[in-house]
Design brief:
heterodimer, A: alpha+beta, ATP Synthase, domain 1, Single alpha-helices involved in coiled-coils or other helix-helix interfaces, 2 domains, nine-stranded mixed β-sheet, 2 helices, 9 strands, 27% helix, elongated, B: alpha/beta, Pyruvate Kinase, Chain: A, domain 1, five-stranded mixed β-sheet
Chain lengths: 144, 288
């Protein structure tokens, strides 16, 4: 068994998760990255994506959907994100509706000289919705 | 003579009793809302220090941080005041305390201020006095989510980056205990980090990705967003605490008043009886 490290996942509204973990895989801006105990000290920005947590002494991963934030790796790991959800907390219908709305908007409005930030916002909404649905469906990545 | 006064007193007792019922009910409602708001507030405040710590770490440990969010990067001309009040009244001096403090700050400011009003009480006050409100938010603060507070923070941050405003000041009520709330004024931007020269730099190099600058540029607006969110949540907690106190004293006063009025009523009734007896007795005496 690998060494374990403490992980805190914090959202502005609550403490989402706290526990001893062996491995956490998060999507940084540069791509998926795994963090284990004794990782170099780091502070990285995270993208909207899946978060895979392997708890100490467990073979399975728990997954969660997070939307942006940053990871602070020191003696312990702290992840700060705007919103985090476990698969069972995700409202699939709502995510689907939000995704459809964003797609529709992009199709109809994007050609018109819309504000670039608005297009970006719609893309982010779409991304978040896809991510939520992926997580609710057990994650896009297959377990090793 | 005594009859009409007795009627009046009776009527007053009745209306005061009605008011007492209402204030008592409001007190109970506020007490339960306070309990709920307090639990949300306690959860939000607890983990906030992580973000501030991360910012201070960057400031203390790296040289190449972008200056735009830091103190002293430009002359402070226009100040944006975010005034957090409530949407409803009947909460004692809660709103007037915040407004008084805000008014004092604004008077002391030689430049024309920009006001962002959270809660309708503050908005109405400043509108009536001819101030310009650059944005306002009337959402009920009880179960506001972090995402919803973007509506408050995003335009402020944008104006700051664009150079329309040079300073962001947050005025809200902070929660000391259920009995005591204090108005606090916090300057959000430019950010003033605690530069601790005694603390030795960290023994290990920290890897920042994509770059120190970008991490810093992400963290500072996040700090502002979180501060605004916590202020709204905290202020909602204070509002309920203040209302509960106000309603409690109103109920107490009503009860005292009912007791006094009942005493007057009994006295008036006794006086009426006594005078009637005197009349009868004197009437009987006259017949002798």
């Amino acid at each position: 068994m690998a060494d374990s490290v403490r992980l805190d996942i914090i959202t502005p509204e609550r403490l989402f998760y706290r526990g001893e973990i062996e491995l956490v895989i998060a999507r940084t801006l540069a791509g998926d990255e795994g963090f284990m105990a004794h990782h170099t000290w780091a502070c990285k920005l995270l993208d909207t994506g899946e978060l895979w947590i392997q708890e100490a002494g467990s073979k399975d991963f728990r997954i969660a959907a997070i939307s942006g934030g940053y990871i602070d790796v020191k003696e312990s790991i702290v992840i700060f994100t705007d919103a985090a959800e476990w698969p069972e907390e995700i409202d699939v219908e709502r995510a689907k509706a939000a995704g459809e709305k964003a797609t529709e908007w992009l199709k109809t409005q994007a050609q018109a000289d819309a504000d670039t930030t608005d297009i970006l916002k719609a893309r982010i909404d779409l991304h978040k919705s896809t991510n939520r649905m992926n997580v609710a469906g057990g994650g896009i990545r297959k377990k090793r | 003579m005594a009859g009409s006064s007795m009627q009046d007193i009776k009527r007053r007792v009745k209306s005061v009793t009605n008011i007492e019922h209402i204030t008592n009910a409001m007190k109970l409602v506020s007490a339960s809302k306070l309990r709920k708001a307090k639990s949300t507030f306690e959860k939000t405040g607890e983990y906030f220090h992580f973000v501030t710590e991360s910012i201070e770490e960057i400031v203390n440990n790296s040289a190449d941080i972008p200056i735009k969010y830091l103190e002293g990067n430009r002359e402070i001309k226009t100040t944006c005041y975010i005034v957090v009040t409530s949407n409803r009244g009947l909460c004692g001096s809660f709103n007037s305390n915040v407004i008084r403090q805000a008014e004092a700050e604004i008077k002391a400011d030689p430049e024309r201020p920009e006001i962002v009003a959270v809660g309708s009480k503050g908005r109405d006050y400043f509108l009536k006095r001819g101030h310009e409100i650059c944005s306002e938010y009337m959402l009920p603060p009880e179960n506001i989510s972090f995402i919803e507070t973007y509506g408050v923070s995003a335009p402020v941050l944008k104006d700051y980056v664009d150079g329309k405003i040079d300073e962001v000041v947050l005025i809200y009520t902070s929660f000391v205990s259920t009995m005591e709330q204090r108005v606090r004024t916090v300057r959000l931007l430019p950010f003033t980090p605690k530069r601790d020269l005694d603390v030795a730099p960290m023994e290990k190099q920290v890897e920042y990705e994509p770059s120190t600058e970008e991490v810093f540029n992400y963290l500072v607006p996040k700090y502002v967003e979180i501060m605004i969110y916590t202020a709204i949540v905290e202020s909602a907690t204070c509002e309920h605490a203040a209302r509960r106190m106000a309603m409690e004293s109103a109920t107490d006063n009503a009860n005292n008043m009912i007791a006094d009025l009942t005493l007057f009523y009994n006295r008036a009734r006794q006086a009426a009886i006594t005078s009637e007896i005197t009349e009868i007795v004197s009437g009987a005496d006259a017949l002798k």
